[in-house]
Amino acid sequence: MKHCAGLGALLCLLLTGFLFFTASCVPKRLSSYDSQVKELLSKMTIDEKIGQMTQPEQDRVLSKPGDMQKYFIGSVLSGGNSDPKEGNSLQAWTDLYDHVQAEAMKTRLAIPILYGIDAVHGHSNVLGAVMFPHNIALGCTRDPALVEKIGRIVAEEVRATGIQWTFGPCVTVPQDIRWGRTYEGFSEDPAVVSSLGGAETLGMQGTDFSNPLSILACAKHFVADGGTSASISPARGNQAGGAGRTVWDQGDSKMDEATLRRIHLPGYIAAVKSGVGSIMPSYNSWNGVKCSGSKRLLTEILKQELGFEGFLISDYEAITQIDRDYKNAIAISINAGMDMAMVPNSYADYFTKLKELVNEGKVPMSRIDDAVTRILRVKFAMGLMDKNRSQMADRKLHKTFGSAEHRAVAREAVRKSVVLLKNEKKTLPISKQIARIHVAGKIADNIGNQCGGWTIQWQGQSGEVTPGGTTILQAIRKSVSGKTQVTYSLDGSGAEGASLGIAVIGETPYAEGIGDRADLSLAKADIDVVANLKKSGIPVLVILISGRPLIINDVLPQADAFMAAFLPGTEGLGLTDVLFGDFKPTGKLSFSWPKSNDQLPLNINIPKANKHFDLSAFISRTQRISRPLQHSGHLQFAYFKMSESTHPGAPLSSSATARKPAILSRAGRRTVIRFPP
Q: How far is it, in rounded angstroms, from Cα 49 to Cα 364?
């Protein structure tokens, strides 16, 4: 993979919220392949062209032998639960990809398929893959170089199965943390989203699409999916409640264009500057018009103004939401600028109706040719049309799949993303020679809860969902001395006599609209765990695992120390790296933290509404705090003696000791946050 080196790399830095690149960092323009595309396009029938614009689920199209060839399918996907029949092993996924690609090569022109998957925090459908922290946690790192490195590793693990396309990065800017997709966003701050979204795009794609270790990225969901208003109507696919349930997913984003551009567009500008080859329009509406059917958004702003040269792929059956008349919905979306339709179940109907629309003159042939040109540009750029190159999976990459080297980067991401919110009585760092630690809570020894949604299954799942990772309890046991006793109970009972209690509490896995919650209070069982530890008379550390800030009033006063780890993924040792003082904490909140449900929605983009939780009230009265300054909610308590090295994540010397806490802003200023009454 080509990357900038030396001084040239310094030019690939964030500038005024966006990424810019030197000539050596800019991917080759996709339109530079148009002469090759034009030649192929001239040989294609209308059926072959529409086939390139059609993306079914792999299991649906394979269940009808001959359909890959009949409809000249140009792309397939595996949705959240669309797995190989043989299971989720690395071998099964690789075999599935090779089978699908072999079927595609039987068509007249033998144009290889693009296989898409949601590798949103690692190759997360595959057993044994490294699961990185979700984006909400990566936002706390403020580290584009690390996120780019993660993108490269995800690309390599995806390519190990042969698959060449992921539906990411997600460059949403969530404005209301009650939305169930909040954890898919890097931050509520568009500048942070731009920085990290551009970096992840570059990591996945590199600057050479044809590199065998690169994958096609897909910035999503265009646009303002994180700015929807609450509604009393269950979102599509919502299985958690019926009519009357408040939801945010797939709703209407009501804002003027200036606001849309200021908050929600910057991440896409950064992705386009990074060379992103595909973008996914969103389910949501903008002022009552579905984004997937908006010519203003898809053609005028994205393609014409921003100069996006790749192709647009609709979300899962999203076109059906545009109009009750499916044929009319297809016409609206394709004419608005949609290039490829994700039609997992209705691919044959879509194919037939789009061909009818062309024959009737309701979708011009020029629009079909433009869509197919954009798709073929990407295929040529990726080397899919190279007759001297095998399109089958490179199984030599299995050797590094889920490797220790990959897990080391995930561990680094965890330790750089955890945010310390409170530390009293020198609770942290913990001595590795401590006599006994009593650990409690439903997430302490549960890799599924630790990883969250989009892990093996669409909604995620509690329990031992994937091998190779380390739970927080396991990480604690690996980090202490041989003389230290580590005990555990689910409810916090049995802590008497321990030197320290650690409660690991928070949310269980969810994805999309299933995770929409009007009430972000902690579960009673979590509150009881902390209370049980506290009544044993020992110091208590609370670690919160969640896809967003939660209302923590009931447990924060009882905690001697409190840490937000969000959704750290498989590498629990990254957390204990900080707990036991091997690394200083550097994470800063990527989202504002509310004091109560009544304050929601709460974010830095709401004028004069920055009423954050007064965490400083829980700092020991014996420790002096500097005069507070207003800030956006990005904070960190530094509790270690700083080493001479000042770069983020520098290891501490063995003489590291507790010190007076301070809060560091994302700009590096030593400030605390003002909490208006």
A: 13
